Amino acid sequence: MSKHNHWLFKSEPTCFSLEDLKNLPDATEHWDGVRNYQARNFLRDQIKLGDRVFFYHSNTAEPAIVGIAQVVREGYPDWTAFDPENDHFDPRSAPEKPIWYMVDVRFVRVLPRPITLAELRGIPALAGMALLNRSRLSVQPVREEEWDLILKLAGVEE
DNA sequence: GCCAACGTTGGC
DNA sequence: GCCAACGTTGGC
């Protein structure tokens, strides 16, 4: 039995929401446009097929973990960096020597209730979460204990 | 809309 | 290699 790791991906819902992911034809999306080296390292090196991901809505009235996605393709070069027409174009990145990477994720579920940032902050056992300490990291690891606790809070039976 | 936190850039 | 200036993220 292989052991999967857990992650948290942030997205601004006005840009791309959990509902948007759910409503895609095959509920699958390229997680492109990440332009931070630490997040890139996770995408390129550590995020594996089958890993589960908390979908977090940021920069919104009530920031919260709202659902779960799953990795369906491991890290590969983010081609949006190669396209001058694309908002995420980066002239330093080239197909033969890519700087930026992405993974593909598919929709798994909406949480029975969103777990807000405010609620997470109130839980001592979660004080070490990257979300609470590394506020600007958009792709980040979630420890197994944190993952399990948050699922329990949300009322998810696994 | 404001602004603090913080990652990145570039001059020296 | 330091660090000030700058730009962006994201909570509020």
Summarize the structure.
With 158 residues, this protein is of the alpha+beta class. Helices cover 23% and strands 31% of the residues. The protein has a six-stranded mixed sheet with strand order 2-5-4-3-1-6.
Topology:
Elements: E1 6-11, H1 18-23, E2 28-30, H2 37-46, E3 52-57, E4 64-77, E5 101-116, H3 117-121, H4 130-133, E6 139-142, H5 144-154
Parallel strand pairs: 1-3
Antiparallel strand pairs: 1-6, 2-5, 3-4, 4-5
This protein binds a DNA duplex (12 and 12 nucleotides) through residues 10, 12, 36-38, 58-61, 63, 117, 134-136, 138.
List the keywords:
DNA-binding; ph1033 like fold; 158 residues; 5 helices
Q: Find the count of extended strands (DSSP E, 2+ residues).
A: 6
Q: Which ranges are low-confidence, i.e. pLDDT below 50, for 5 or more consecutive residues?
A: none
User: Compute the gyration radius: what is it?
Assistant: 16 Å
Class computed from helices, strands and strand pairing: alpha+beta
**CATH class wording:** Alpha Beta
CATH architecture: Roll
Give the integer mean of the pLDDT values. 94
Main sheet attributes: strand count, strand direction, barrel closure: 6 strands, mixed
Helical region count? 5
CATH domain fold name? ph1033 like fold
Shape: globular
